[in-house]
Amino acid sequence: MATANKNLSDYDKTTIPNANKFRFGIVVSEWNDTITEGLYKGAYDTLIAHGVLPNNIIRWDVPGSFELIYGSKKMQEQMVNAVIAIGSVIQGETKHFDFVCEGVAQGIKDLNVIHETPVIFCVLTDNTMQQAIERSGGKHGNKGTEAAVAAIKMAELRRNS
Ligand SMILES: Nc1c(NC[C@H](O)[C@H](O)[C@H](O)CO)[nH]c(=O)[nH]c1=O
Ligand SMILES: CC(=O)[C@@H](O)COP(=O)(O)O
Questions:
Q1: What is the distance between the alpha carbons of residues 51 and 74, in angstroms, rounded to a whole number?
Q2: How far, in Å, is the centroid of ligand 1 from the Cα of 31?
Q3: Structurally, what CATH architecture does the domain formed by 28-160 represent?
Q4: Catalytic annotation present for 50
Q5: Pocket test residue of 28, 31, 95 for ligand 1, highest count of atoms within 8 A of CB
Q6: Are 42 and 148 in contact (CB under 8 A)?
Q7: Which numbered ligand comes closest to the C-alpha of 124?
Q8: Structure ipTM
Q9: Which residues are bridge partners to 61 per DSSP?
Q10: 79-131 pLDDT, tens per residue?
């Protein structure tokens, strides 16, 4: 289902466990920072809304989305229950977009396979800045909210498994 048909900020709040016992790491790419800051706000506000204590949210910044891989790997080494990797990749004139998107997706997938701490893929991969705006707090909601919900659910799954 396309994002246009499912708002990123819509979810059943009754299905979310109280997250006051969890600690989260958030790694934020500085590329397209007007977008990534909007994603971060969506994620942070959602974690707080579900009981996470502000002191239990660690934020690190990295230069670009490709560095989310290394930053998330190091964040997994901290005492956190889940990591959220936040980035915004926007198509330019060349194939670089393809390599960055594929590299980050594969790298974060590998971190989920190799290590115990879940890493949530909160990376927008848009054709235009307008698409990114619409998915970071615009008409299609906020992928940061979606990512925070996923992080809480995966932290709970890890705790119970
Ligand atoms: N074009 C975008 C980039 N490019 C930079 C890479 O992510 C990386 O930092 C660089 O290749 C050095 O390793 N990054 C984004 O996050 N978004 C873009 O649109
Ligand atoms: C995703 C990118 O790296 C891209 O925005 C860079 O732009 P260009 O392909 O025009 O070099």
A1: 25
A2: 6
A3: 3-Layer(aba) Sandwich (3.40)
A4: no
A5: 31
A6: yes
A7: 1
A8: 0.97
A9: 28
A10: 999 999 999 999 999 999 999 999 999 999 999 999 999 999 999 999 999 99
